[in-house]
Specification:
alpha/beta, TIM Barrel, 8-stranded parallel beta barrel, 9 helices, about 15% strand
């Protein structure tokens, strides 16, 4: 199984340009999109095959293995979204979960050598989450997003600033509705990086888009 330590860089460096994608997000071949994004300099990738139009079963695993190989070739961490049963099959570097998914304390016990990320959207979630067992959090949605069918109301860059002031040393990435035009504000508000989906998958020039973050 892949270990996070193999990648050597501090987690904050990996969070800088964090790309999230599943087949359901793509109008083009997802392998082509990911390779273009990797060549352009994304620093972390999350395989999120979930929602309407998502692959399941063998097809999901086959795509996951192809995307995992690309990340391995470019030495970029490959994260899986809540699919605990695919951790070993896809030889992932980490797993990201939401508040209603597998508890992070349980994941840390089961996978001590993987990156573990947690989505946090409110002060209550921030206060009640066991942040000591995660490697990073995803804070948002910063802006309105249509990528997630169950997305909550946007919390704005004020949320990013609050998280940074509350936890000065906590690695975290801003997520939700982020694009080339507003990414700078998210970083300036205190996030270590930005996580994007459609900003890359719908881009006519992936290389330029990634470089603009």
């Amino acid at each position: 199984m892949s270990q996070k330590g193999v990648l050597h860089l501090p987690i904050q460096k990996h969070l800088r340009k964090y790309f999230i994608m599943g087949r359901q997000n793509c109008e083009r071949n997802p392998e082509v999109i990911l390779k273009e994004a990797l060549q352009a300099g994304i620093t972390m990738f999350q395989f999120r095959e979930k929602g309407k139009g998502a692959l399941i079963g063998k097809a999901k695993i086959e795509l996951g293995k192809k995307l995992r190989r690309l990340c391995f070739d470019y030495k970029v961490p490959f994260i899986i979204n809540n699919d605990v049963d695919l951790v070993e099959t896809l030889e992932v570097n980490g797993i990201h979960v939401g508040q209603g998914d597998t508890p992070v304390a349980e994941l840390r016990q089961q996978f001590p050598n993987l990156y573990i990320g947690l989505s946090v959207s409110t002060r209550e979630e921030l206060n009640n989450s066991p942040l000591d067992v995660v490697d990073y959090i995803g804070a948002g949605p910063v802006y309105t997003t249509h990528t997630k069918e169950d997305a909550i109301t946007a919390v704005g860059t004020e949320w990013i600033t609050y998280v940074r002031e509350k936890h000065p040393n906590l690695p975290f990435v801003g997520v939700g509705g982020i694009n080339a035009l507003n990414a700078k504000q998210v970083i300036e508000a205190g996030a270590d990086g930005v996580a994007v989906v459609s900003a890359i998958t719908a881009s006519d020039d992936v290389a330029q888009t990634v470089k603009s973050f």
